[in-house]
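Following up on my earlier thread - several people asked me to post the actual chain instead of describing it. Fair enough. Here it is, all 389 residues.
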Amino acid sequence: MSIERTIFNEDHHLFRDMVRGFLEEHAKPHHEKWEAQGYVDRDVWLKAGELGLLLPTVAPEYGGAGATEAMSSVLIEEVARANTSGLGFGLHNDIVAPYIETFGSEAQKKKYLPPMARGEKIGAIAMTEPGTGSDLQGVRTTAKRDGDHWVVNGSKTFITNGYHADIVIVVAKTDPAAGAKGVSLIIVEEGTPGFRKGKRLKKVGLKSQDTSELFFDDVRVPADNLLGKEGEGFIYLMQKLPWERLQIAITAHASAQAQIDNTVQYVQDRKAFGQPIGEFQNTRYKLAECQTEVEVGRVFVDKCLEMQIAGTLDSATASMAKLWLSEMQGRVLDTCVQLHGGYGFMWEYPVAQAYADARVQRIYGGTSEIMKELISRQMGLGAGKKKPA
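Reply from S.P.:
Thanks for posting it. Predicted structure:
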């Protein structure tokens, strides 16, 4: 019934089968424990590294597979489909590693990427601060040059992989008076004096994904830990945000489809008034609407993925994907919970976890409101407007 997905080839299908097997054996049986403790066990990272699931788009000379983002998309989709949301592979593979590979020195690439590919080192990026949210120009964390070192001071919050992180890319002001032009990226390693991890944050969803506060008190790192050029950090962030936002859209369609599938099975088995509730017109029509929305979203996502691979995905299009797919995910999962009745509110049912996990999709990576602002500016509307080409 669905439109053929031509973005994937036989290699991707084989990789998908391997990822599903990995998740069935090494993730799903442990997920309840991970939710209780608030983080996944580190050994699952090592196993993922052994199987070649980490850093798929990074060049082979640095331990990666040298594949396109289509391979990353397979992993993102399958993690969403399996409801194993604690695995922070996406951020590690497709946000942290690309910053290092794209903007890092040869020495940085050789030092950090191979152990990340093996799962021995876990990556995080520290953008958000207690008072800034989506305003990356307004970060207060500073990095001041002192001889052959940078001295980092500040705090970050809502940092995915923060508890396990061995390598943290810190967004900091190296020139606080220069606005966006004063933002730089500094690599801070676990164990550096003055760098400490705060409490793991308890969240509405993504309960097994470690999310932490990070603190930097006179943290001295070598001058060589500057990622790219001083003052170019904001530009680097803007270059990578479209792919980050597309990853959220990919997660949204995969999660929505998985829960539609679960709900179809549930309404065929669950009976009310002497017949399966899937026989009622309301049930059938609601699920038909959901499937249509997911199918429309999937086609858009696949087109955006083609653009990302070709290097043509722009900020406005990625923002549209993130906005529409995350909002669609919320609508679809709300319907799926409703069709489950009381059982949809029970944590033991996958739809309940998926529902809770999905709420943040409309917040991180830029809220839905920020996406609308970016899109409208590209249309030539509002402050900072840009005339359409």
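The domain at 10-121 is CATH 1.10.540.10 (Butyryl-Coa Dehydrogenase, subunit A; domain 1). That should answer part of your original question.
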